[in-house]
Amino acid sequence: MDRGCLCNDCYYTLINVLVQEEYEIDFDTTRPHLSGQVPYIELPYKHENGNKYTKGIEADANYCCQCGAKL
Predict the structure, then answer these.
(1) How high is the pLDDT of residue 8?
(2) How many domains does the chain contain in total?
(3) CA–CA separation, 57 vs 5, rounded Å?
(4) Strand partners, 53
(5) Distance (Å, whole) CA 38 – CA 44
(6) What's the domain of life for this entry (predicted)?
(7) Predicted pLDDT of residue 38
(8) Which domain holds residue 66?
(9) What's the confidence (pLDDT) of residue 67?
(10) CA dist list (Å): 11 to 46, 64, 65
(11) What is the average per-residue pLDDT within 12-26?
(12) Of 32, 53, 1, which is closest to residue 10 (Cα–Cα)?
């Protein structure tokens, strides 16, 4: 299984859940593959002027698409 855009912690958490719950991995070929979609996450962001808001980022190789941690 490819780690994809997950950080190590989220990746191993996912693996542990899959193993413990004994999920069957469903290879549904009718749906678009997840790797073809760009995950989009919102992170709390504080601008240099002090204003706080959420900043949407595309979760590429620089950020974990589960928790938003910088990779």
Answers:
(1) 84
(2) 1
(3) 13
(4) 45
(5) 20
(6) Bacteria
(7) 53
(8) 1-24+39-71
(9) 78
(10) 28, 10, 10
(11) 68
(12) 1
Q: What pLDDT score does 23 carry? A: 55
- Does residue 55 belong to any structural domain of this protein? yes
Residue 67 lies in a domain: yes
Does this model's pTM top 0.70? Answer: no
Query: Is the pLDDT reported for residue 63 higher than 70?
Result: yes
The answer to whether residue 32 scores a pLDDT higher than 50 is no
In a domain, 43, yes or no: yes
H/E stretch holding 45: strand 40-46
DSSP state of 35: G
Q: What are the C-alpha distances in Å from 29 to residues 7, 24, 32, 68?
A: 26, 15, 7, 28
Give, in order, the Cα–Cα distances in Å from 49 to each of 52, 53, 55.
Answer: 9, 12, 15
40: which residues sit within 8 A by CB, 6+ positions away? 56, 57, 58, 59
User: Is residue 19 one of the residues assigned to a domain?
Assistant: yes
